[in-house]
Amino acid sequence: MMWFRQLLCLIILVCAVSPSGAQSDSPLPRWELRQGGFYFRLNGVPSFVLGRNPTERTVEVFDKDFGVAVANGEKIVRVHLMHGISPNVSAGKVDEPWAAKWDRVFEAAERRGIAVIPVFTIWAQWNDGSNGEFWHVWQDNPYNAARGGPARSPSDLLQDTTCRRQWLAWLGELVQRWREHFCIVAWEPISEIDLVTGATPRAAAAFADQAARAIRRADPKRRPVTVSHSGIVDWPEVNGSRSVDIVQTHPYGE
Asked: Does the global pTM surpass 0.90?
């Protein structure tokens, strides 16, 4: 079922909107959403935003996927950095070989003219199954205390804890590393934050605020920060947050 959830995340990939002025030196098409408008505009013309969530294990296969996407008229991909090409390192540390592979993925996207939204973590890494979710990998998370990490619960990510501070430092280091890739049009610190074990609107909003601060300190181009929900979730603290530029909704069909 994992592939099914990934596929359905395509629905709200409208995050390709360029931040004001941030991508002016980019050869990528310019997307914008005008105030009061119902459609995104591609180089000034109303248009749909089409994209996908590729999850591959090699740079070469990602490059092939990008070529297929371009041939199909797609403009954007949303890549989960923890899937396919996965890091192998302790909590708070950047895995250099892993990061270097993603450098090459972003370079491939730039050659193909594809925009990218990197997703730094996903709810399943911070879910222990206690809320009934069928797919959860907290047991494999290096931040888990059972694996030598600083967190006794997945919800530590959403609180002012050593876990969150270490994770945010890791996030900022990677944004600083990748900020020169012009294919990156937005940053997504976490996918489907509402499914994190112990998540509440208030805690999720606090995490989103801190993540956005870490990203903006590291990215002088001020590309948008986006977070996503697993469905049409009414969390005004997150959805109306000044820290979040774009909110994604991932409604899944049965």
From this structure: no
